[in-house]
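JOB MANIFEST
job_type = single_chain_structure
chain_count = 1
residues = 333
[input]
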Amino acid sequence: MSKQIGIDLGTSNTLIYLKGKGIVLREPSVVASDVKTKKIKAVGEEAQKMLGKTPGNIVAQRPLQNGVIADFDVTANMLRAFFRNVGAVGIVSRPTVIICVPSVVTEVERRAVEDATYEADAKEVMLISEPMAAAIGSGLKVDGPRGAMIVDIGGGTTEVAVISLNGIVCSKSTAVGGNYLDEAIIQYMKREKQVLIGTSTAEMLKKTIGSVHPSADRGETEIRGRNLRTGQASVASVNSALIREALREPVGQIIGVIRQTLENTPPELSADILDFGIMLSGGGALLGGLQQLINERTGVRVTVAKKPLESVALGIGRVLDNQYYDVIDFRGR
């Protein structure tokens, strides 16, 4: 029998929800392949370990950029491998799939997601807006006339949307996500400390001592990198205040998008948001002090989802259980 699965296809990570079993796969959205033969060498966690370490004949890459497909064939191969990992594809069976797309996406980009999923051996493909899935997975009521605001900060983008009556009333998106924040830390370390660090080190700093509000400072740590003056390996001390300064500009962009969305919200729904607040989801919701900073800059109460990293996948799971069937877009082939 055809299995029903939901896919949170993210720039950084892909999660798969299998109806009746819950989330059955969490893997980095990374593929390693042979440059000449195009043969897949590794997918997910195994491929991520190869980033920046591969020989010339193998390339490890993220096939999605800023929430959309950058390499069609690699994305299709990655999805096919994930389908096999969760047992969704059999000799005579293919899965029915609900997959998320950004709220601000072109028709070409939507079609690319559909086609890549069909190419990965899906039987049927339905689309759902990423902020809608995040809102449902975060526990917001989206089917009534009351306005609900979701801010989903993923690896490639930040999606902000106001939802009412199973539809998105207004939304904004920015290409500032977790990966952009990591790059901001790398560039700041180069300018201020003259130390070059890698993406994994920048992500570690963001997660362990990263702070965007003084109330959430978490001390300091030492990191290893390459001194740009001498070219030698060096050790540098980094504290939360430095990370806060490094993230000032990109976090300001995220808050700017939130404020723009609030300004575009109809007055009746604005009153609801003022009463019930803003919901934060996605990995970026875990950034230290972000909840307090948004509250100060907008004057609106902010809540972090119980499982921010899984909100989109859990939302699609609830749709699979037919609780919010009206929010999907199905056109078929």
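[summary]
The chain has a mean pLDDT of 92.
The chain has three domains: 4-132+313-327, 145-176+250-309, 178-248.
exit_status = 0
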